[in-house]
Here is the input.
Amino acid sequence: MVLDKIQGPNDIKKLSPEELRELPEEIRSFLITHIAKTGGHLASNLGTVELTMALHLVCNLPEDKIIWDVGHQSYTHKILTGRKDQFDSLRQLDGLSGFPKREESSCDSFDTGHSSTSISAGLGMAWARELNHQHNHIFSVIGDGAMTGGMAYEAINNAAMLKKNFVIILNDNNMSIGANVGGMSKHLAALRTSEGYTELKDNVTQSLEKIPVYGTKLVAHIRKTKSGIKQLVIPGMAFEELGIMYLGPVDGHDVGAMTDIFKRAMQFNGPVLVHVMTKKGYGYEPAERHPSRFHGTAPFEIENGMPLCVKKVAGYTDVFSTVIRKMGDRDPKVVAVTAAMSDGTGLKRFHNMFPDRFFDVGIAEEHAVTFAAGLAASGLKPVFAVYSTFLQRAYDQILHDVALQNLHVVFAIDRAGLVGPDGETHQGIFDLSYLSTIPNMVVMAPKNKWELSDMMKFALNYDGPVAIRYPKGKAYDGLHEMRPEISLGKAEVLFQGPKKGELKKPSKPLDCDYIREASQDYDWIVTMEENVRSGGMGMHVADLLCENPGAAKLFNVSIPDGFIHQGTVTELQKLCEIDPESVVRRIRSKIFGEIDL
Here is the structure.
C-alpha cells in the first residue's frame, strides 16, 4: 500500500506521481474502515483528502503551520504526519484525539474545536513570524459554514494590515452541520457559478502584462482600484474590498490544481484567500447523500452506512423538542433561535411547524444571544437552544445584553456536563459556573424528563432570563411520582431520614432557608454536580455556610477543575470520580473515615 510509505511528516513528498494518484482512494478507504468502528467525523474528512494532500506537498512541516478551523476535518493531516497506527484509538480514553492537539504532534500548530477561529490564530502566527524574523508559511483553513461567524470577519479586517504572506484557504463545500444561511452563503453561491472566472482573470492579467513598459504597472493599478474593470472580472470582490487577494475557485479534489494555486498564493506579499470547492462525504455514497448524518457518526455498517446500534431511546433533547413544539402551538409569542444546530438541539419540528418563528443565525452564538435579547425587548418569548460548550462564546452578550436588562430569554442548554468522545473542547462542564455568577439569571437542572417539561413551561412564563441545563443521552424516567410545582429558589427534598437528607436539583437562586436549616440539623451537607468545582453550586453553598455558621460541614462532589479529555461518558465519570460507586466511596471516606461500611 502507498499509505504504508508514509511514516512521518513530509513523507508524501517522496511519492511518485502514480502513487500520489492512488493515495486519495487509500486514505478514504482507511478513514471509512476505521471510523465505521470507532465513530467520528466522517463526511468532513472525506471531503478534504486532496486538500490536505496538496497542503502537505507545498508545506515543510512542522516549520510551516496549518491551522484547521474547528479541526474535526484534520484526520488526513494526522495520517500524513505519522499517526496512522493510532487510529484504532480515535476519540477513545487516552487515545488519538478527534481534533488537532499540540501535545499530540508538533505538526498540530493550534488546538481547535470551536468554529471561526483559524484566521485569527493564523494571523497571530504570521505577525509572530515577522517579529521573530522567520520565513515559514502560515495556512489557515476555514469552512464556508465557519465564515458565518463574526470572528472570521474581525480577523479578515485585521489581516489587511499585514504586508507579508499569509494564506487563508476557504474550504467551500456548501455545508455546515446544518444548512448555511445568510449573505456570505449567497455570495459564495454566486462564486461557485462563475464558470471560467479563474481562466478569465488569468488571461486578462497575462495579456496586460505583455504590454511593453506599462503592462505591469497597469496590472498593479487594476488590482488597487476600487471600481471599474475590477468589479467585472473579480467575483471575489467582497474579499478584495477588505484587502485580501482572492484566488479561485479551484477544484478541491484536484491535487495538482490546488498545489499550483497554493504555490502562487505563497509568493504574494500580503494576505491571500484561496477559494477551494469540495464535496462533503466525497468518495463514499452514503456520506455524499447524507452529509449531515455523517458529520459526526456513531459506528456504522460500511456497506450501507446504517448505524450498528439502531436502538432509539428518548433523550432530553427529544423531550425539549416535544415541549417547545407544544408551547409554540399554545403561545404565538414563543420563537426559537439556533446557531446552525437545528437538528442537534431538537428544533427541527418547531421549524417545520412554525417557520416564521424559527431563526437560524448561522455559527454566530454571540449574535444569537443579542438577537434573542432584541426579540425579548419587543415582547416575544425567545428560546435559544444551544450546546453548553458553544454558549461559552457568548458570555458577554448574556451578561450585558440579556441579564443587565432582565430580559425574558430562555437558554435551553443541551449537552451540559460530560459529553464524551469529542474531548476538552466539547465538554459542557463550565456553564453552571459562569451562569451562576450573573445577576438576574435563573439556572435550573431537571432530575428527570418530566421535570424538564415542567421547567420549560415555568421558564416561558417567567419574566426574566432563565437557563435550563440538561445532558446528552437517555432522559431519566424515574421519580415521576414526585412532581411538585416548580417554585423559584425552593429545594425539593426527595428523601429524609435520621441524619440523612438529599438535595437533587442544583439551581440558582439557592434555597437559602433550607440550607441554613439543614446546616443546623445535620452534621454534613453533600453537594453533587456535573460541573467543575470552581464557581459551581457547591461553592455557592459553601459561601452561604460561611455567612451562616452552623454544625454542618460541607463536602463538594464535582468535576475537578481542568479540561477533561475524550472517552465514553461512563469512563469519564469514573475518571472524575462522580459515578455512583465513586460518590458512595468518597462520601464514606470523607465522613466516616476509611471504614468500609
Remarks:
- Residues 226-234 have pLDDT under 50 and may be disordered.
- The two ends are 59 Å apart (CA to CA).
- The longest strand covers residues 524-532.
- The first helix runs from residue 17 to 38.
